[in-house]
Design brief:
The complex is a heterodimer of chains A (577) and B (98).
Chain A: H1 11-14, H2 19-46, H3 48-59, E1 60-65, E2 72-73, E3 79-91, H4 100-110, H5 114-122, E4 129-136, H6 137-146, E5 151-160, H7 168-171, H8 183-187, H9 189-192, E6 197-203, E7 209-212, E8 225-226, H10 231-247, E9 252-259, E10 265-271, H11 284-287, H12 290-293, E11 295-296, H13 303-312, E12 321-323, E13 328-331, E14 334-337, E15 344-346, H14 347-353, H15 356-363, H16 368-377, H17 404-411, E16 418-419, H18 420-431, E17 435-436, E18 451-452, H19 456-469, E19 487-497, E20 500-514, E21 521-528, H20 537-540, H21 542-555
Parallel strand pairs in A: 2-8
Antiparallel strand pairs in A: 1-6, 2-3, 3-4, 3-5, 6-7, 9-10, 9-21, 11-16, 12-15, 13-14, 17-18, 19-20, 20-21
Chain B: H1 2-57, H2 60-69
Amino acid sequence: MSRSVRYSSSPLLASKTPVWRSKFIVAAIAMGFAVLAARAAHVQIFGNAFFQRQGEVRFVRTLELPASRGRIMDRNGLILASNIPAASIWAIPEDVTATPAQLKELAQLLEIPLAELSSKLGNEDKSFVWLKRQVEEPVAKRITELGLKGIHQDSGFKRQYPDGEATAHVIGFTNIENTGLDGMELTFEKHLLGRAGSRRVIKDGKGRVVEDIRDKVPPVDGKDLQLSLDSKVQFFAYQKLRETVTAQKAKGGSVVVLDAVTGEVLALANYPSYMPDKRKNLTGEQLRNRAVTDTFEPGSTMKPITVAMALESGRVTPQTLIDTGPGRYAIGGFNITDKHNYGTLTVEGVIQKSSNVGALKIAQKMSPHEMWDTFTALGYGQKPQIQFRGAVTGRVRPWKTWRPVDQATMSYGYGLSASLFQMAHSYTTFAHDGRIIPLTMLKSTEPAVGVKVFSPENAQAVRRMLQMAAAPGGTGQLAQTVGYSVGGKSGTAHKQVGKGYASDKYRAWFAGMAPIDTPRIIVAVMIDEPSNGQYFGGVVAAPVFSEVVQQTLRLMNVQPDVTVKPQIVANPVEESL
Amino acid sequence: MIRVNVLLLVAVVLSALYLVHTQYESRRLFVELEKAALQMRKLEMESESALAEKRAQATPMRVDKLAKEKLQMQPATPAITQYVAYRDTAAAPVPVKP
């Protein structure tokens, strides 16, 4: 049995509640709301900016959207430089817990000595250390698979150069931040470089992006660059140069191949070279773009220019007779000699036999001022207008300081200096009917517009002389090719050492063009210090010229202009019944 | 009056729930979009490196070496080239006698 309480009759309830109590409660609640309202007003109106900022600090992030660097391509669209993904590996030393075996494997993957890795990770004072930057993707993947604590990766890109050492001097390279340091990578830095974009996002607690809070600024990728270079010609030129430099035990060499119509540089190779993506322990010898940075006295290759000047002034014709006997000439206390006594030669013969005495006698018909003007018009002593940083000017002294002996030596290429590139450039005058054309490293399809230096007739006359010089009886007959007519001039000079000339150090070169009637290409070859017994340009450099010309014209689909005895031999096939 | 209020309250609650749902859905889709964008970038990168790899496998240097060593080929010269004169395609074909 239970006893029930009768609440209605409870004496407590029976007592009357004072009104102030309920009023007090209502007031308290109202007060609570007022406080909340005030707080809300404070947060949302007065302190809005502060709280907004605090919120952003906790959840909003600005992400950089990297722009990729433009690619470099050759004239046919083949890639010469592109980007491949590469990760950078870093570590927080105090977080790293790895077994010695794991560390050993990591060191192997990173291709660094174990001791170096250990010392990097041993420094626990540092909260961040790069282990290796720009590691290729497959290696980075394997490092991820190791699953080591405290080892992290940042993704990025690195530059790749498929043609390697063959194009190294032209393309150049970038540093670890992908900034161009040399060659076209440096010259066209602005063109290749993109502009990074950015976006503001909200990240959730797990670090995932959950919302864009502003329109994103899209990255602007760098623009691609199409060069005038032909990767096949470049490779071939480099290969022939390397073979010759090695065979001749030379110090180095360069080849320049120009398009005689458009002024494009089709190939520019130097040896020794280097791999642009493996740049440890490089020497200046390897890094130097000799074709544009090394100057030397052009020697006999200047003779055609001297003759062209004289023809242009109307003081000689190709058939004018010049007495070069007895093969030497004394001027200003110096004795200028020829290899043999050639007797009386025509102007053509002076080029064909490469007579120093003949050249100086032709030069004596002109004033220093005239000669200086022509040299300058041909780009000697002028900074080449080409997209290479560090292209040198060479040296031609002001004509007022020339003594008669200076004028005489300059007529056959001594007493002034130029780079191989300048020399090839000056020869565009002969190839382009007397007009010197601007050169470019960028692809162009329009024929170049040149500046007149010589008349078309005189340019043709010099081309004929160059053809003779490269024909049997001339100094450069090894320049002959199968199928194409060539013309060119060899040169050999003692190297300057200190103030004088070294008696046993030479530089040999050959500059010429083909096909000779309507030249399509100009090729200049220089071999530095050939020391395998031979050192004449006609012997050392001309064969390189020959092979490069032949291969280049064939690649350009130029039909042979010389009849060729075909050597097509069909294998005899046994007749069947 | 009370009925209207209750109706409004229900409407507000439903709308609030729908808002939560929409917000959730929007974030989910956004994350998916992000994933797809990442995937796109990754594929782009892969295609770029595949192209680079293809190019690296076909450099003149490598082709030359393989052609010479494996196939015993040699550079062509005009002496072993048969040049064929270009004939206008508009020219009538030569009738063939039976």
